Amino acid sequence: MAGLATAADLASYVLPLIGTEAGGNTFPGVSEPFGMVKLGPDMDTGPDATGSSYSGYVPGAAFFTGFSMLHESGTGGAPKYGVVSQMPITGIPVENPLLRHADARGAVADEASPGSYKATMASGIVVELAASSRAGLYQYTFPNSTSGTNSIIVDVSHFLPAPDRAYLSQHYLGGNISASAKPDGSSLQYQGAGTYNNGWNLSPAWTVFFCGYFDSPGTVQTFVGTSSTGSTIHQFPAASTVDTSPNRLGAVFSFNSTSTNTVTSRVGVSFMSTAQACSNVNSQVPPGTNRTALEAQTRAAWNDQVLSKITTTDRDNTTRLQLLYSSLYHMFLLPQNKTGENPLWTSSEPYYDDVFTLWDLFRCTTALFHVLQPTMYEEFIRSLVDIWRHEGFMPDARSSFFNGVTQGGSNADNVLADAYVKGVRGSINWYDAYAAMVTNAETVPVNNNDPRDPTGSTKEGRGALPDWHNYGFITRSYGRSVTRAVEYSVNDFSLYQVASGLGNANDASKYLDRSRNWRKHWNPSAASLGFSGFLVPRTKTSFIQQDPLLCGGCYWADDYYEALSWEYSFNAHHDMKALVNYSGGDTTFSNRLAMMFVPGQRPIGSEQFNNTIFNPGNEPSFTTPYLFNFVGRQDLSVQYSRAAADTYYQPTAGGLPGNSDAGAMESWVLWSMTGLYPITGQTTFLIGSPWFHNLTISLGGGKTLQITSTNVTTTTSSSQAIFVQSLKVNGQPWNRSWLTYDDIFANGGRLDFVLGPRPSNWSTDGSPPPSPATEDVVPPPLVLPSVVEQDRFRWRVERPVLASLVSAVSATLVISAVYLCLRRRRSQSLGKGQAHQIPTTEVIGGGVVGLAVARALAERAAAVAPSSSASPASSVLLLERHNTVGTETSARNSEVIHAGLYYGADSLKTQLCIRGRQLLYAFCDQYGVAHRRTGKWIVAQTPGQRASLERIYAFGQAYHDRDAVPLRWVGAAEAKAREPAVRAETGVLESLATGIVDSHGLMQTLLGLFEQAGGVLAPGSSVVKITPLPPLGSASASRQPGDGGWQLHVKTSSATDAEETVVTAETIVNAAGLGAAAVHNMITQRNGAADKPEPMTLYYAKGNYFSYAHSQPRVSTLVYPAPEPGLAGLGTHLTLDLAGRIRFGPDVEWVDDPTDLAVNAQQLPRAIEAIKTYLPGIDPAALQPDYAGMRPKLVSAGQGAADFVVRSEPGYRGWVNLLGIESPGLTSSLAIGEMVEKMVYSN
């Protein structure tokens, strides 16, 4: 270990167990650099474990539950993978392989080094692992025994769960397996596949194929359970081949303990096929492979490909060498190179997956990829662009072939800009790359309705673009508004950089201007710790006052993500001159920066860092220690960056300041060791001070960067020589605290430092680092009124999900406050002589129809309110029983804008669908809601189906406004040319008016307009009782129920069983969807009601949807089968989402429980049969259960179709009833809102 750290066995300095404790979440198992296979342990703390094992590993007293082929390193949120597992058992034969078969950690500590991992379990079994990029080798040494059986369980349903975050936890969806012994009995083999979903990126279904061998004689028995999660056995043994099943399944391999003490298994994996999995293992770990030889091969890969890129002859401090090379090791575990293993499309471009996340990586890691792995870096960028080509957006994060999660901005933009300005060209198509960046900057991504923050997409792109485009800032209509504003500014600066290089002057000017929008959140009056001027949330007209030292939960639905206002206020690194100016000039800026590192200043959330505002464990603070360079105090950059590194980084299991974040932490400390720090998206590198006497960095192509340091101190002490006294760059004296990529990296270079124990003024005569987004004259900051957080409490209630879940009691307070206002309004509006009566209305149900109705009523109320009156902020109250709007039928549908073809010329459905479609297209255009006019093909395969198409066409021709239902016949030749994969034996009728819409974006826009007009949302509020009130000021009985208004008893999600809130209104609108019958019956079946009619009953038709994970066949339009008489829907049709991905559904399954939203996988064979009638080329194996929706029907199965009910209930005053609002309810929503608004105001 004390030898020279030159290009020898540098792997001896690597400690893979660094970061496996204290939340570092690093992976200690076996992997090649960027390897797809990460073979390692899966562990927990016991059968009732409440925490997640992100990398599979758990330190201390813990249990092994398996050893699996796929893992990630340094991730958070929830675990991913932990699949294709083996679990060894010794002793008695396995009776039920589905029971928990865990084995505690033994007395011997785990051992890990690059290429090998070894664990000793309490049973005495020793497990040793080795791996290549796409295959692995297990070696089991069982304890000596004269009797008994040694077994290895292959459980296809095994995965890493997230017991602490169920909504992110992975699920097993199904699998298959076949297992057998060789005819001569010398060995065993198995192959199959497992399908899973979810994890930290909320991924839909993905499938991994496996192929394994055991080199010892033995027996094998397959097994099948009775469900996907339980431990009840259905068959054991089962058949040698277990076909695809949603139930748990696998195989038990048994070996005679008296004759077989050591068992070796080789396993390959693939995301393409079992054949490719077998090819992977047999080519990379062929029969007869020796474990130690495979370990040596992987170790050599680390030495040659990664560790040798930085060498030194400095051998004085082993601790530093261990930290250097262990950091390099962990930084190069992710992303994973899956080129040739992408099942979604065929491409000649590279493919990289498991990117966690560019929000974490863009500041330090990707720039170091460029320096140390230029070939991989170019491939990675090509992969990002190719994902955009095929899926519509580059990822900010990606795993199991699915984008997600986007924490702030679209940070692939920053990565691409950094590569472009540093001259990376190669095989990158920069015109496509720039187009991908423009997509991020201009296209609103489809809202994926993430429960952590459903205000905009967390999957990809920039979910808050509507505000960014409309205002140049981001209001609290969107979560993480301040974080996004800062990061969108940086993203737009990145577009400016590339547009400038490509000669697109107009775009460059636009995006440079937009890159300064962070300034619109800068409140010069905000104050903290004696300093003024901070980034804050805002409304359209004012700043919102708040303490810059607090950020709520610093989570998805808050103003700031994982950092304080203090931290984000230092993050406009492209516009530093303006930032320094706004902060009060160089001296004040320097003092503000220094305050970041003073212990005890942060009230909560930084206890492990002595309550400093600076948070070394979170990326928004990464660059902060180096910003002193911008104001002539490079010595302070060295002081504070070195203090953070020395304090929070050690080569120990708990030696990281937090989650590794897939190597982000490690890349920060690696830059610190070199004495440089990158500013991503620019060619600038800030100068710190190096840790070693010498470093040689290999840059590829025979180029190197040589860094030498005179007077380096190899021990950590208060007198260590860390401050730069002088510097030469390429042999020339240097007096600037920064340099450029071209200075030392483009063609290689040399840095010669002289260090000392005290600061010097070596760089004070040099110019400050560039501030490329800043004008020559910085305009003053905006001066806006500041409002106290009066809306904040309401926002906490109205903003869906986590904020309201944390403090759901606030819903009760909102309803109570609204009650007082409504009650006061009621007494005023019912008085005589009122010139402007504004009805107080309560809309029950916050689906898309309820939102459209509430918005229409609130805007009408705002329009008719007298100018002298108080704001009509409480004229409309929207009650939603869930903690966010639009989670039932509105969130689980095809998102199709229907044309109105099927419902009869005189039906309300047809009238509202056609009117609603026209309104919806105009609304989406006006407010930037993502949508597309795709058109729709209705296809016929038989003469009878052709007759159905003829009837539809005749309806369109006869409709009183023929232009409202545009239809045309598509001839056979045209059909073949346009959609060659679609079968239509007897005809194609094209609906030109059909389209698709982002339903979640639509609902959030409606919600924003509703609130803007003064409406109030009360989430988590269930109506439990409705009572008509007598008229005010009248002793006589009501002539009809509702003459005096209505009283609603509401139970909030925070209330106890006995607690209810009572609110009143003149008018109630029942838009409760699946709960509409219950609300109806509260009125008609109430105690004291005269002539009670029969209770209303709804019937529930569940529709199962299926995703399609294959690039072929390609279809560019919606495809519907010809309607069949008697069906409760339109058949299992093909729809597209806005990214062009195919999905199928819904079918029709009648159920009794409207909450039964589990996809019925048993429906899949029937769906495949239906789909193949019009799309014969589908790959059935690529179809997976996706989600299910529920349609409230007014008639039961076999009774035909019922029309919408939208009416003022006869015999009542102030009750508008919406019943049976199913498809085309989404399309009709705005028209229904328009209709209800007229009903309410006509009364």
TrEMBL record:
Residues 13-270 form the Glycosyl hydrolase family 92 N-terminal domain. Residues 767-778 have a biased composition (Pro residues). One of its GO terms (biological process) is carbohydrate metabolic process. Residues 843-1236 form the FAD dependent oxidoreductase domain. GO terms for molecular function: carbohydrate binding; peptide-N4-(N-acetyl-beta-glucosaminyl)asparagine amidase activity. One of its GO terms (cellular component) is nucleus. Residues 276-756 form the Glycosyl hydrolase family domain. Residues 757-778 are annotated as: Disordered. This is Glycoside hydrolase family 92 protein.
